[in-house]
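User: Here's a chain of 93 residues. Predict its fold as tokens.
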Amino acid sequence: MEDRRPSGEQSHSLSLESRGRLFVSGVTEVESFNEQEIIMGTTRGTLAVRGEDLHMEKLSVDSGDVVVTGMVDALEYEDEAPHREGFFARLFR
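Assistant: Prediction complete.
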């Protein structure tokens, strides 16, 4: 399969071990974090990690690697899709 990332863009990957240890690469920023939720920007969109007793064991800004420990309940990406017009906006153009 062909890699279609723009040249120079860092790769992004996730690895979850037994729902207790999450490895994330391609992190560009950590927007917020507490014991229930960690929000981070990645090269592939904003990632929300939800769970209990979450801690960032490792954060490397240089390499873009993050290690999260705790009980991971959910991993969710926010869509970075272009804004689509609603029905009425198209109707009254």
